[in-house]
Amino acid sequence: MAAHVPPIPEPGTDTLPETFTLKALRGRARELLDPLTSGYVDSGAGDGRTLQANEQDFGNFTLAPHVLRDVRTVDTQMELFGRTHRGPLLLAPTGSHGLLHPGAEVETVRGANAAGAAMVLSAYSNTPLEEVAGHSEHGLWMQVNAPPDRRFLECFVEQVNHSAEALVITVDTPVVGTRESQLWDGVTLPAGLSFPMLEGLAVRAEEASRIHRSALDAGFDEAALQRIVSMSSVPVLVKGIQRGDDAIRAISAGAAGIIVSNHGARNLDSGLSTIRSLPDVVRAVGGKVPVLLDGGIRRGTDVLIALALGANAVLLGRPVLWGLATGGRVGVERVVELLRIEFAMTMALCGVGQVEDINQDLIHQGE
Q1: Which of 63, 268, 283, 352 has CA 20 to 30 A from 190's CA?
Q2: Which residues form the catalytic set?
Q3: How much is the pLDDT for 186?
Q4: 297 and 322 in contact (C-beta within 8 Å)?
C-alpha cells in the first residue's frame, strides 16, 4: 500500500504543542499525519512488547544522587571520533523524512545544526547524501542496511568516504520483522519521493509470505563486515548489537564503534530492550571502542542512566520524527534541546558537572 505526503503546513508555521513535552508532541504528530505514515513512525513488531520495554525498562534503574557537590557549572559536551558535541545526543537513522515534512532530510539536518547535534542519515533517505552533507554543520554519519548486492555496497562505501564522517552498518535485519500495525509497506512511495541512495539496488514490495527481502543480505557475516571496514576511510560503527559476544566479533572485524539497538523494536518482539542489553555489551567491549545506544530515550534521566551504564552517547529516533512532522527544523531543534536541558538538570541533581564524571556509582545497587 502506498503512503502519501500528509498536508503539512508550510515551513515556519508553528504547529508545535503549546506545552512542549514529548508526550504532547507525539499526540500533535498523530493529529497531523495520515494513518499510514503515523503507523510507520510508531509501530513495533508483533504485539509491541519490546516496543513498550524500550521505554519502560529505564524505570528499572534508580538513580542514587550525590549532594554537597559544586554544580554551578554543568557541561554537557562530549567528544566522539575527534568531534566535540554539545551533548551526548545524536539523531538516529530514520527513513522517508519526505513523508513528514516537505523539506525532508534537509529540514531535519538544519534542526540538528541548530541544536548542535550530529545526524545519522538513513540509506532510505528521500534526499541524496551529498545534498544533506552540504547543509550539515555538526557532523553527518551515513547508515545502510547490508544489501545482498556486495558491489552496490562497495560503491556505497566509496560515496560515504567522500561525504560523511562515519559509516553505520545495520546488522540486525537479515529478514524483516512482523509489523502488523504498519499499514505502509515501507517501499512504495508517493509521486515526487524516492530513495536516491538506493538507486541501482532492487528495492521493491514483496509477498508477505516471503521472509527474505531483495534489499536485505541474510548472509552478511564477519568476513563481509571486515571487507567493508577495509574499504572505508571513515570509522565504521555496527548497529544492532545486543549481546556482548556479538560486540566482540564486530570489533574483531574492525568495527570502530558499537550501537546497541533493536531497530526501534520493529524487528524482533519479545527481545531485550536496549537499556537491558547495554551492560553486557559494555562489559564485553571493555572500553576498546565507543558504545552508543538507541531505543526508548524519552527523558534526560534516560540519557544519564544510559551513560551511567557505560554508553558514550545516545541516539534519538521517533521523537525527532515527531518534531519534524509538527514543526520542521524548529521541532527537531526543540526535541534535542529539551532532552539536553533535562539531561543537564539531571546531572546537576546527581551532583555531576561533567559528562566524563558520570559512572555506574550513580545507579542504585541495592534491592
Answers
A1: 268
A2: 263
A3: 61
A4: no
> Degrees (nearest 5) of the Cα angle 187, 189, 194?
90
C-alpha to C-alpha distance for 237 and 19, rounded to whole angstroms: 37
Q: Is 268 left (phi over 0), alpha (psi -120 to 50) or beta?
A: beta
Amino acid at 342: E
pLDDT in the model for residue 61: 96
| 68 CB burial (10 A radius; 0-12, 13-18, 19+) | exposed
Rounded to two decimals, the pTM is 0.92
Grid cell at residue 219: 548472509
Among the listed ranges 103-107, 195-199, 292-296, which one has the minimum average pLDDT value?
Answer: 195-199
Cell 509489523 maps to which residue? 179
Contacts of 210 (CB under 8 A, 6+ apart): none
> Which residue's entry shows cell 550501537?
259
Of 70-74, 101-105, 215-219, 280-284, minimum mean pLDDT range: 215-219
How confident is residue 136, by pLDDT bands cut at 50, 70 and 90? very high
Residue type, 9: P
Averaged pLDDT for residues 205-224: 74
